[in-house]
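ok new one. same drill as before - structure tokens go in, u give me an amino acid for every spot. 232 of them this time. try not to just spam alanines like last time pls lmao
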């Protein structure tokens, strides 16, 4: 179990600003005070599925935040309303997300890790299956996907690799069989299918070739049997 209530707790990744934890975990401590029409002190707020504040008591989440002149301070926590289990923690410095955000399944298992710098995702965001195995790793710089993103099967085996450049897919997207062999190669330039897509049998032999230009099939599709012979 991760201890979240220590007063000296800080949630950071290397190079990120430290966010100190006030230990605000009990919603009965919230006063929801406004000073000069600005939020101040301990607040509890209901949050809908889109992350918006709502007056509905049936909201999926509630959020505990300490505000200083309307800006979140320290560790902000989200809880599932129906059972009071922790749903997420978000670290704030100077009113902006700074550090490692964590999201949880209702079971308490880790769902996602999101590294923030000044409220922008910066670093590798990681998504997990409820079993605990990694589902995806996506690198970000300045809030945009940049670098080699990876998806995984529940077994932990690599499922696909995609290179991103400022949120756009570039190069060849590679999809793998769970056994480890290549399943398909999809050419992107940029973010559209351009080039020849290839599919493979699990044994490694080429199954088909499909040419694309700007996401539209352009040319003849070639299919092959498992012996490498073209199928007309």
């Amino acid at each position: 179990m991760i201890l979240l209530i220590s007063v000296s707790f800080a949630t950071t990744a290397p190079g990120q600003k430290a966010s100190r934890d006030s230990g605000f975990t009990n919603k009965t401590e919230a006063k929801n005070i406004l000073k000069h029409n600005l939020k101040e002190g301990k607040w509890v707020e209901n949050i809908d599925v889109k992350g918006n504040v709502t007056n509905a008591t049936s909201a999926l989440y509630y959020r505990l935040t300490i505000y200083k002149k309307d800006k979140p301070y320290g560790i902000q926590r989200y809880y599932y309303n129906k059972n009071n289990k922790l749903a997420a923690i978000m670290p704030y410095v100077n009113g902006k997300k700074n550090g490692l955000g964590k999201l949880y399944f209702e079971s308490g298992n880790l769902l996602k890790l999101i590294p923030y710098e000044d409220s922008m995702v910066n670093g590798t965001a990681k998504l997990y299956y409820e079993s605990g195995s990694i589902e995806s790793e996506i690198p970000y710089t300045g809030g945009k996907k940049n670098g080699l993103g990876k998806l995984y099967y529940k077994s932990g085996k690599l499922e696909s690799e995609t290179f991103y450049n400022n949120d756009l897919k570039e190069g060849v997207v590679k999809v793998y069989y769970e056994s480890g062999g290549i399943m398909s190669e999809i050419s992107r330039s940029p973010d559209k299918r351009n080039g020849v897509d290839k599919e493979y049998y699990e044994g490694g032999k080429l199954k088909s070739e499909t040419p694309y230009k700007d996401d539209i099939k352009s040319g003849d599709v070639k299919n092959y049997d498992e012996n490498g012979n073209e199928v007309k």
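Residues 84-231 form a domain with the Outer Surface Protein A; domain 3 fold (CATH 3.90.930.1). and btw Confidence is low (pLDDT under 50) at residues 1-11.
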